Structures are given as C-alpha cells and as structure tokens.
Amino acid sequence: MAMVPFKLSKERIQQILAYILLGAAALLSLAYPFKLALGIDLFISSVFTLLTLRVFGWKPALAQFLIVHAAGVNAFHEPLLMAALSLIELAAAALWLSRRPDGILIPTIAVWLAIGIPAILLGYRLSEEEIGPLLMLHLTIRVINKSFNALVADICYKSLPFLRNRNESRIRLSGMLLELTIFSIIGSAFLFVLNTGKIAEQNMTASIQQEADAAAATIRDSYSHWTEEERQAIQLRSLLQLGYLSEIIRTSTSIATEQAALFNEQGMIIRSFHFNEDTQPVDWLTEGGWNRVSDSLYRWERFDSLYDLPGSYLRNTFFIYELKLSGLIIYVHLSSEKYIQEAVLYYVSQSFNVLYMALTIGLFSLFLHRFILLSIRRLVNITTDLPQRMKSGRQIDWFPSNIEEIHLLIQNISLVTQQLKQMLGESKEQANLDMLTGLANRRHFNEFIVEAVERAVADESCAALMFIDLDRFKPVNDKYGHAAGDELLRQVAGRLSAMSGQGTFAARLGGDEFVLVIMDTNPHATDMLAFKVREALETPFEIDGHQLHIGGSIGIAMIPSDGEDADTVVKHADMAMYAAKQQRDGAYRFYADLKGQSVFSKPELLAELKMALDNKELMLHYQPIVDLAAGRIVKVEALARWQHREHGWISPLEFIPAAEKGGLMGRLGEHVLIEACNQIMAWRDLHDQPISITINLSKSQLAKYEAAACIERVLEETGISPNFIEVEVTEEVFAEDYEPLLQALNRLKRMGIRIWLDDFGTGYSSLHMLHLLPIDGLKLDRAFVHRLSEEPARLATVRTIVALARNQGLAIIGEGVEQPEEEAILLESGCTLQQGYYHGQPMTAMQITEKLRTAGR
User: Fold this and answer.
1) Which residues cross the membrane (predicted)?
2) Distance from C-alpha of 815 to C-alpha of 782, rounded to nearest angstrom
C-alpha cells in the first residue's frame, strides 16, 4: 500500500519557522548579554520567550524555555537561581494571560518584586555575603530589565500584524499610549544605566590607574636606591630584603593592597605577600580571567559559576598592577571596593535625573489621558450607535473641549449629525407619506400600529383601530376618470384629517382603504367618532362640478380587548369591516359584536352555501406570484370569493369553515378546480405563454373527497396540461395520520402536478417530513416577512429557510410582501418568487388579464 506523502500548509510552515527563530534569538541573547559597568548584564532572552508564549501558547513556550535555559546552564554557566526565577516568571505570565489576555507587564513586575528579590536576598543571607549598595543596584536594574522585556514583548505582539491573532480586537489607543509611556520611562532608565555606568567605570579605572602609576613610581624610586648586594639578596629570597620590599609595596599607594606576587625574569615566583589578615593562597595567579585595561593594569574576573548570585561583582572582580623592575616582576592585587562603592553612589545620585524624566513623562501622559484620550473616548461613546439615536430622536449631549482640534472635530460631527437628522426626517417623512393624499401610508401604519398596541397593553389603556373602505368608489373612477378618483381620495383624506384630533392617527393603505388609530379612548367615544366618520363620508363630494355620493363601510377593533398584538388587531378590524360591508353600505361594526355572530345561522349558512354552489355564485379571485429574476407574473393563487345576492360579500373566514364542517369541501374544491381550468383555457387563447394557477387543498379534500382523482378527471375533461395546475397544502395536514395523505400527494406528483407546502415555518413540518413529502417548493409564511427590515432575527431565519430549500432542491415563494424593503431583502436572500400586496392584491380574472396586457406579456 502506497504511503500518503506528508504535507504541511504554508501557514503551518511559517509558524514552525517563527517558533524556531524565536527560540534561536532567545538562546543567542542568553549567550551574549549586553555587558554594562560593575558586572551588570542586560538579558533580553525573555522578550522572545514571552513572545512565544503570546503567539503559540504556554506549552510551546515552556518547551522552548527548557531547551534554551538547559543550554544556558550547561554551556554558558547561567546561574541556577536566575533560571528558576525566569521559569516562575513564565508560569505567572501564562496564568495571567489565561484570565486577562491584555498584557504581561503586571505579572512580571509582581513576580520579581514578590519572589525574585526576596529569593536573591535569602541567597545572600544563606551564603553569609554582605548586602550592600551594589547588590541593591543590581536588583533594581534586574527588575527594570525584566519589566522592559515584558513591555517590549507586549508592544511587539500588539503592534506587529504578523504576530497578532487575527481574531483579537483592535488596538486601543489609550492602552498603546500607556505602554509607550511606560516604555519611555523604562527606556530612559536603560539609557541612564548605559551612560552613567560607562562614565562611572571609566572614572573608577582612571583613578585606579592613576594611583597604581603613583605607587609604581614610588616603588621604582625606592628600588633604584638599593645596592647590587640588596638586589641580589632579593633573588636569593632574603627574608630581610623581602620584608623591606613588602613594606615599600604596602605603603606606596592609598589603595587597599591585599596581596602581591614577586617573580624573577624566568617567570618563577620568588615570594607572595599578604597585607592583611587574609592568608589565602594567591590563586588569582592561575585562575580567572585577566583582562588588560592598559599596559600595566589588568582587571581580574572569576569564571562564572552555576551558584553565583547577582551583585557578587565585589567578590569576583579586582585589579592587578604589573610592575617591571630590573630582574624582577611584581604583580600587585589592588582592591576596587572603594571605587566600586563610589561608582554606586554616583549611580544613586544620578538616579534623580531618571526620576525627574519619569515624572515629566508621567505628567505628559496624564495630560494626554485627561485632555485628549478622555475626550476621544467620550466622543466614541456618544457616536456609538449614532444612527439608532438619530432614528429614535434621542437627545445627543455634545461636550466642550479645551483642545482646539478636538473642539472643531466635535463641532463638525455635531453639524453633520444635525444635517443627517434633518435629511433622515425628510426622507422618513417622504417614505411614510402617501403621496396622493398626504396621509401616512401603509408602511407608516404598520410601524405605528405595533407601537400603539404595545403601548396600550403596557399602559393598560384603551385604543381603537378603525378600518374604512369606501363604497361606490369604483363607479366614480369608471365614469369620471382617474383624475376625479384621485381628487375624491384627497377630499376624503381631508375630511378624515379634520376629524382626527390629538391622539388620532390617519393613514391610507392603498386604493380606497383608510384607517384611523385612536389612542386613549373608549368604546363609547369610538362609537361616536365612527358615526361622525360615516356622516362625513355620506356628505356629497363636489368634483369638477359634480355632486358625488359615496359612503364607507367601517370595521372597528378595540385594543387590547380585541387583540394584544398588531396582527390580531388588524385581522379583527378587517373582519369587522367585511361584516359592515355585508350588512349594508355606510354601516360600521365593532369586532366585539361579531363574536359568536354571523350574518347567517349555521344551518342557514350551509343551506345558502349549497345554493351558491348550485347557482355558481362563488367566483375566483387571483393573487399574482411574480418571478423577480424573470421580471413578470409566472403564476397566480386562486382564492374562492362569495358575493351573496342579498348580503354582499361573505368572508372566506366564515364560509370555508362551514364547508369543512358541512361536508361541502369536495364540491367547493371541484368548483374551484373547474373555474381555474376554464380560466387557464381563456388565458391560453389570449397569450402565448399562459400562466399556471395554484389551488389550495385541505386535509379533508385529500383524505375524504379523493381530490387526486377529481383533479385527474377534470384535467382530462378540460384538456388542460398538469403543468398549469399546482396545489398548495398547509403544514397542519401532517399533524397526524398522514399516510393516506402522502398517497394522495404521490398520485398528484406522478400526474406531473407541482406541490407546494404552504405557510412553512409555523406548523407541524420538520426536516424529517421534508424528506418524506413529495413537494416541489415551500411558501414562506408571511409572519417571517412582516417587518423583515426591522428585525435581524427574522432576516436570519428567512436566510436559513432559503438555504434549507436550496439544499433540498426546493423552490421557495415569499408570502406577505407589502413593502419595497421586504422585496429587496428577500431578493438579496435568494428568494426571487414573491407574493403579497406590494406585487398585487387578490383581483378578478379581468384585472389579472389587464395587468398581464400592461406588463407586455
């Protein structure tokens, strides 16, 4: 079996290379620190280790640390104590980042103040070493060094785009300025250490050189007065002459002279001298490192040890002066303690410069934060969600600033905001107005009724919705023309506005439909207003010299007694208006009066419906379904309508439930199907591409009345192709015992009839059912489409359903489209088939024919 080649992505390779480079940089900086004065070393290896921690996490950082510091301990004699403290620093930084991923400066300083310094001081106590000013200087610089490294790691991680995580938030200006301020303070401390330390060490070396040269001159002068015999005695190791020479060396300089060694010309030691109580051997002759300072002066340093402590420079470093006499070489061990102490004091005295600089930078940072950053942050808070504030009309509290640039910026933003509010108000006014009458339009009404119902429910107050449908308006249009009809609508709007006092909202929904929303009212006051509206509409209108008599049918729903949400209230007011129109022209009805009532009793309604079916009184209205991709009407939905010979229009909400209960759904469905097929033939004769018609099938039609067999028979009798008949079934059909229904639908499917699942998303269907049903498409329920532009949650649901339909290979129709925004959002979501009042109300076959002819079909 062939092995699959191992491949790494380009991004993974880059990560591995970055990890290796950071580790190599950490190792090199540990091996070659910056050498400062007085044995002070600056290490930047933790910069790269902390960067590894921030970029790759704690596990890769720990592995890198162990490798680097294992090499440091073994190859470069890194003290074990310092390696252990660095490990604690890394652990603290990792723990801090797991809780607050905003930086590692604070845990670094905390570790070295709380653990690092006490651990080093404890080491001095245990080793009985002296704790002096040089140690304090070393510890101070160590804390500054580690803080500087952590700060550099933070700034590099946040500022360099190739190191930052793409998912992390943007850099905050205030945080960046704070870090740069601290960086400046610590950086200035570093500059101070570099500059002052170098000067102090140069001064110390020059002083020692000067003292050593003076001592050498004294020794040479004394030695020049010796006789040849005395010099020979030195070669012969005469104790007397060696004693004289020892005293000359001891008294020749003011520097504390601890030891000296006398060699002959052949390099053999003649004698070592001890000038204090210390009688330790002169092991410095063979151990340590001799670093030449000048022709005659060396600085001796002990080799590093794993157990060295910071600040052990005094113990591990001193100076050696080389003096050559005739036949002799003298090496004098000079103590540097006095000069080192002076250098430390010089450091401390100069630290006031650093303190002054730090205070200056700190005050400048405070100024930036107080007068600039706080102003910018306040401006950000004010301008956050500014469009929503402007839309809601909330007051925006601008603030003054003493900084001219920020003051001008605030003025400019304030001016632009005012202009935008004015433009938004004008645009909103135009978008919410009916251009013909000047009243609010349907869009504005849809927004207002939601707010009105919510307010009435919340305040436990009473409001009313009044639906007004003009009577005898169509004859005016037909007889006198559209101009007269438009003028009539304007006069109606004027009369309604005149009666709309404070707290009353008037709107034209379209055509000859108007609404009034009355706030803070009661049924009696609403009844009186409805009477006045009816009287106003029955008063003749004068149009072009003609006295026109119309009137209006009014339906009233009280809030919240007739509904606690906008959709319910609108539906009930509409039902009351239909009941008023059925009663007689110029009537008004309250929805409360319709509860449990009907124009007919149940037996009368059933008998009248049978008679209507016998006399073919039921007709079909058709609502267009448009394909925005094709730019035309592609199908219509057939809706049964009943105009009673005496009582006028009977609502489908009334006669369809009666047909279901009275066993007339089979006859009603067959009547609808025959009428639809006849209309298809009529359109086929008029147009080259007749549109298809969708009809609704109920559960009882599918289960009891063999709708599939009926459709097959009617299609054969009329000769209509199954391609032009489509059926819609609602989700409630599949609530229970759906196996017989599936058989009926499968039969329709085999006939070539397209099947739609209506009101999808509000009933009983599930993803499992979608796999079982022989459907061709979904009709998205109007509940998802309503106020689609204002509620992001609905938009997300719609997009999910559209994507689901596509994945299942199903078409989708968006129902209830009433606004251009809803059309645009559905289209952008991929729903090109749409249905709703925005594209056309249910209309007669003649009106559909005229609409098709106008559209150029």
Assistant:
1) 43-68, 80-98, 104-122, 173-194, 354-373
2) 5
Mean pLDDT computed over 339-357: 65
Cross-strand bridge partners of residue 834: 626, 814
Please state which CATH class domain 203-343 belongs to: alpha beta
Per-position DSSP letters for 295-307, written without gaps between them: SSEEEEEPPP-TT
State the pLDDT at residue 527.
85
* DSSP designation for 440: B
Q: How many angstroms separate the Cα of 501 from the Cα of each of 248, 330, 459, 519?
A: 121, 118, 21, 10
What is the pLDDT at residue 109? 86
**The domain defined by 619-857 carries CATH number 3.30.420.40:** no
Please indicate whether residue 398 or residue 173 has the higher confidence score (pLDDT).
398
> Helices in 558-703 by DSSP H: which ranges?
566-583, 591-594, 602-614, 652-662, 665-686, 699-703
Q: Residue 62: what pLDDT?
A: 92
Report field, pTM of the whole predicted structure over 0.90: no
> pLDDT digits over 436-464, tens only?
888 989 888 988 999 999 999 988 889 99
Burial 140-179 (b: 16+ CB within 10 A, else e): bbbbbbbbbbbbbbbbbbbeeeeebeeeeeeeeeeeeebb
Check: CATH 1.10.1760.20 for 10-171?
yes
Q: What is the pLDDT of residues 168-195, one digit of tens each?
A: 555 555 556 666 666 666 666 666 666 6
333: pLDDT strictly greater than 70: yes
Residue type for position 846? M
Q: How confident is the model at residue 506 (pLDDT cuts 50, 70, 90)?
A: very high
Cβ-based neighbours of 529, under 8 Å, separated by 6 or more: 466, 499, 516, 518, 521
Q: What is the pLDDT of residues 122-161, one digit of tens each?
A: 877 777 666 766 677 777 778 878 887 888 888 788 776 5
Third-level CATH fold of 433-597: Alpha-Beta Plaits (3.30.70)
Domain ranges of the chain: 10-171, 203-343, 386-432, 433-597, 619-857
- How far is Cα 311 from Cα 131, in angstroms, rounded to an integer? 9
Hunting for tokens 């003011």 — which residue is that?
254
d(CA 833, CA 843): 19
Site of tokens 């001193």:
318
**CA triplet 467, 636, 670: central angle to 5 degrees?**
95
Topology agreement, domain 203-343 and domain 433-597: no
| Residue 558 near residue 526, CB atoms below 8 Å | yes
Distance separating alpha carbons of residues 79 and 346, to the nearest angstrom = 28
State how far the Cα of 300 lies from the Cα of 336, in Å rounded to an integer.
11
In this structure, which amino acid lies at residue 565?
A: D
User: Which of 279, 241, 243 has the alpha carbon at shortest distance from 259?
Assistant: 279
User: Is pLDDT of 346 > 70?
Assistant: no
DSSP conformation class of 371: I
